[in-house]
Amino acid sequence: MLRANFILFILLYSQIAIPQGLFAGLGMSASNYSGDLTRDNKAIIRQTSPGFGFHGGYMLDRFFGFRIGYEHLQVKANDAISDAEWQKKRNLNFSSIIHSADLTAIVEIIPLILPQGSRFNLQLTGGYSYFHFNPQGYWNGTKISLRDLGTEGQGMPGYKPKYNLHSDAVTLGAGARYTLSQHWSLQGLLLMRKTNTDYLDDLSSNYVDYNTLERQNGTLAAALGNKINAPGGSQRGNPVDNDWYQSVSVQLVYHLMPQRKSHEHLSQKKLLHCPKF
Fold first, then answer.
1. Total domains present in the chain
2. How big, in percent rounded to 5, are the helix, strand and coil portions of the chain?
3. What are 223-256's pLDDT values in tens digits?
4. Are strands 21-34 and 49-59 parallel, antiparallel or unpaired?
5. Following DSSP, what letter does each residue of 192-231 receive, concatenated?
6. Is residue 215 part of a domain?
């Protein structure tokens, strides 16, 4: 019965507009991060921050298209909110603005199921992201760029160089769209990005001895990189898994070309007429 009611609901919205051609939109986002400072989904969701973005794209037909977008996001995490004592003791935290450029392909799902179309549609999307980040921490109430300090010995002899503040990611997502009129639609979109960096949070490998770090990279590097005076070589982070960042957005979309009615493609077929003499 429930399945029948759902199908009836979809059919009631048939014979309506299907977006094709150029489109552009803007909206508000909520973003968070997954990495060494987030132990579970509760910690990830709890540390969500607002953002915004805009995008443009082109639908090749009723089923496939592509989108280019930009999102201004913020991610953050803090050991202090954890339920684990070892994490509270580590006492690390960071925040970062992310400038994310995304190029993704779009697959519209409902037209594959219902040829007549619907106001409501589901999307799958996937592609590539290129982004800039800059993890920061606090020292006496002042924000400090953690990358510049070399908190894990970056830049010291025998250690890695300082990491790049630009990276890229594989992007996967899903969305839902509702057509408001021939030119306007409302869309919700989830994008999850698996990055190629483990330093989104300035945290990846092992502690450097406090005195060594202070002597070579400075007092701030030691104070923020090894707050608990842990022995050099002991575990600070997990270098096996790279970081993720994700966003959920609500967007108002304008379709530059009027959207076609779902049944109009049938009437556009050329009809054969009898010859006139």
1. 1
2. 20, 45, 35
3. 999 999 999 999 999 999 999 999 999 999 999 8
4. antiparallel
5. EEEES-S-TTS--SBPPPHHHHHHHH-HHHHHHH-TT-PP
6. yes
- Report the first-to-last Cα separation within the chain, whole angstroms: 59
For 98-146, the pLDDT digits (tens) are 999 999 999 999 877 776 667 889 999 999 999 999 999 998 889 999 9
Q: Residue 130 is part of which domain span?
A: 16-260
C-alpha count within 13 angstroms, C-beta hemisphere, residue 53: 30
Residue (of 131, 152, 135, 156) closest to 144 by Cα position: 135
Q: How many helices and strands, by DSSP H and E, does the chain display?
A: 8, 12
Q: Are 73 and 24 in contact (CB under 8 A)?
A: no
Counting every residue, how long is the chain?
Answer: 277
For residue 122, give the CATH number of its domain. Answer: 2.40.160.20
21's torsion region: left (phi>0), alpha (psi -120 to 50) or beta?
Answer: left
Residue whose entry in the numeric block shows the structure tokens 């999850």:
192
Residue 4 lies in a domain: no
With respect to residue 169, please indicate whether it lies within any of the assigned structural domains: yes
SS3 state at 177:
strand
Is 82 among the domain residues? yes
